[in-house]
Amino acid sequence: MAPKSFSAVAAQLPLQNRPRTLAALVLAIALSLPTASYALKSYRGYLALGPGGMPYNVFGWSLQGLLQLIAKWDTRTPAPFTKPANQKPYAPHGTTPFLAASPLPKRQGDRPDVPGYVAPQRQVTQQGSEDTRARMTAFLEALAARNPGVLVLKPSGLEGVGTPALWLDPAVELPRYLRGVKGELVHVHPEASSHITVSLADAEELTRKGWAERHRLSGVGGAIPLSYVMVYAPRDEAEFEAWKGVVRAGLMFVGAGAGKEVDVD
User: Fold this and answer.
1) Is 265 a domain residue?
2) CB hemisphere CA count around 167 (13 angstroms)
3) Where do the coiled-coil regions begin and end (predicted)?
4) In Å, how far are 17, 139, 164, 223, 264 from 185, measured between CA atoms?
5) Which are the contacts of 100, defined by CB distance < 8 A and separation ≥ 6?
6) 101: pLDDT confidence band, cut at 50, 70 and 90?
7) How large a percentage of the chain has pLDDT more than 70?
8) Reported pTM
9) Residues of 206-236 as b/e, b for ≥16 C-beta within 10 angstroms?
10) Shared-domain flag, residues 165 and 38
11) In whole angstroms, how large is the CA radius of gyration of the chain?
């Protein structure tokens, strides 16, 4: 049997003597059309970011949609890093500025566009090249090679296979703030942005000077560190050197928390 058309179904409804029912039906149709259009546009935008962190399908899109209920929107505001209530879990090194060894200028120009999906978090403008990403990965590999027993390079647990990440060695006792991410320290995304856990002091400076922003789940429920930030893709050689300085600062912070000296030179 052929499916009934919408008009055929509507014709069977006792609408003639029920103007309120007719009005409600018209209103429901009017409201559902833009909602469906928005959902389709949002889903296509989610897929356009590429795989990472969530299932690469409608279920992943739906899950990140649910997480919007608890996710933060003020990811470019540095204020949370300086609140005393937020600093205690990161003591005694959370308020230490490890970037002091690599003075950071204000990032030039506008920030890149970062869509509001909870995950994956990506920049869709000012993206880095494949060569830049390869150099970033090589830098992480060199750091792991210089720090056997402390650092190890393996696929990201947060982003999934295909995304290289630097971790604390499994033999190292994790600082409390890294337990939720199981010791993952930094990983590089396909468009050359990266996620790095740094000290609260450094996260404040990076955010204030336009180099980074928080993940939308950073500090939510204690699973992801508050100072887990997305650092924008390097646009030139000077910014690549600045990115290396951020990685070094993050490793010094985590190393201090774990009671391990990290060779970052």
Assistant:
1) no
2) 21
3) none
4) 66, 14, 11, 14, 14
5) none
6) low
7) 86
8) 0.86
9) bbbebbbbbbbbbbbeeebbbbbbbbbbbbe
10) no
11) 23
